[in-house]
Design goal:
Ferritin; 2 domains; single chain; 13 helices; two-stranded antiparallel sheet; mainly alpha
């Protein structure tokens, strides 16, 4: 059986930048300044390289023993003394991380071949398949944004193109087919602190380290939530002396954040570990499938492009015209969902959240499946306008109606290329419902003006 090198490098297109990077949570060791941390990071990178040499040359095993222990967990650097401002900053970062993970998990799920439908899942939330975990990440994204609103802040639906400093964060935001390497990334991201010291058998940790490749490791997602919980506790203590403008149920939100952290460090971590080792039931008795060449029919994932784009002239632009048209429609549907979510969180109106869910479970699911079958992949690109470009709620609704009309127009233009299961009625239904809301809003506005 042909095997691939565990240490294979990422394809060149994986390094292609998608969007300009923005700020991200900086991490440092406990009690050390940033310069010391960078020196430590360089040392850790050299240690990882030494581990590779030892793995390739057994004679160096003794010398490499010291580098088998992964670098210690890093703490999130605090940037603001004011706990309220720091909490808002951390929550925005958490929303971007959850969003980025959700998109990468979705792309990986749609890259799976039909034979591995059990690993892909159907889209019901859960921790036994990849789509289920992606849905849970979307629920985490929702919880974080609802907490932002509860604290009087604006929601944040922009996904993070991390890292912003490659010498600290080696895992670029990458839409890529599922592989041994991407699974290792997801294991590390979801892992609880110290997990790499407790793998059974111990060799599993080394296998994951080798699949990750060279470079300094990013922080675990759970560490970010530890920082969020700490800041929330400080805001609660301060709130007893100086109440916030809005009433906040701190007990409820502490339980929600703890649940998110536990789901990641327990359920998601376990799923990705089982997927990496081939222990997931979807693999049957073929636990070695990730070691097959990607061209082998039994290899689990289609070889979709890394970071595909539907923007004309982009270096990663999808070449095939019909797939390109579907990908652009996919972007429009994705932007519609994020605009609906933003408006729903800001106005605290469940109807918008319900409509967003219908677009996710309908058009986006259909287009993602069809694009994968065409070898293209769903781009999930950012909208430079953002998802709340309007001045007030009424103008936000107006912008949303214009976005839905644009999406509906593209559906009509692409009618001959739409997949057979594409639910075109979803967009029209949302357009009709929001038009009714708009008309009622205009009537109320006119009535107040006349009064």
């Amino acid at each position: 059986m042909a095997r691939r090198d565990d240490d294979e490098a990422l394809p060149a297109e994986a390094a292609t930048a998608r969007q300009p990077r923005r700020s991200f949570v900086r991490i440092s060791g406990d009690g050390i300044d940033r310069r010391s941390f960078l020196q430590s990071a360089a040392t850790q990178g050299a240690m990882a390289a030494a581990a590779f040499v030892a793995a390739a040359h057994p004679a160096g095993e003794a010398q490499a023993q010291a580098v088998r222990t992964p670098p210690r967990a890093l703490a999130v650097t605090r940037e603001f003394d004011d706990p309220y401002i720091e909490l808002l900053r951390l929550l925005r970062e958490a929303s971007e991380v959850e969003h980025a993970l959700m998109l990468q998990y979705l792309y990986g799920a749609f890259s799976l071949k039909p034979t591995y439908a059990g690993l892909r899942g159907t889209g019901a939330p859960g921790s036994n398949d990849l789509l289920g975990i992606a849905v849970q990440e979307m629920m985490h994204l929702g919880s974080v944004n609802k907490l932002l609103v509860a604290l009087g802040a604006a929601p944040n639906l922009m996904p993070q193109d991390f890292p912003y400093e490659a010498d600290i964060y080696p895992f670029e935001f990458t839409l890529e087919p599922l592989s041994r390497h991407s699974l290792a990334k997801y294991i590390y991201a979801e892992a609880p602190a110290g997990a790499f010291n407790d793998f059974r058998p111990p060799e599993l940790g080394m296998q994951i380290e080798r699949a990750l490749g060279r470079g300094v490791r990013p922080n675990h997602v759970g560490s970010l939530y530890d920082a969020v919980l700490s800041a929330l506790a400080q805001v609660e203590a301060e709130n007893r002396r100086q109440p916030l403008p809005r009433e906040v149920d701190f007990t409820y939100w502490k339980s929600q954040l703890t649940r998110i952290k536990t789901e990641g460090e327990a359920d998601h971590f376990r799923f990705f570990r089982n997927a990496f080792t081939g222990a997931h039931p979807a693999f049957g008795l073929r636990s070695d499938v990730w070691l097959l060449p990607p061209t082998d029919p039994a290899y689990p994932a289609l070889q979709l492009p890394h970071n595909p784009s539907a923007f004309a002239g982009h270096p990663n632009q999808i070449a095939e015209p019909r797939a390109l048209r579907l990908a652009w429609l996919g972007n429009l549907q994705y932007w519609t969902v994020l605009t609906l979510l933003t408006h729903g969180y800001k106005s605290e109106t469940p109807a918008y959240l319900r409509l967003a869910q219908s677009h996710m479970q309908g058009p986006i699911l259909s287009l993602s499946t069809a694009l994968a079958a065409r070898g293209a992949g769903m781009p999930f690109e950012q909208l430079s306008l953002g998802y709340s470009p309007a001045l007030d709620e009424q103008q936000s609704l107006y912008f949303l109606l214009r976005m839905l009309r644009e999406t509906r127009s593209e559906e009509v233009a692409a009618k001959g290329d739409l997949p057979g299961d594409y639910p075109a009625g979803v967009t029209q239904s949302s357009l009709d419902e929001l038009t009714d809301i708009w008309n009622a809003t205009v009537k109320v506005r006119d009535f107040r003006r006349r009064g």
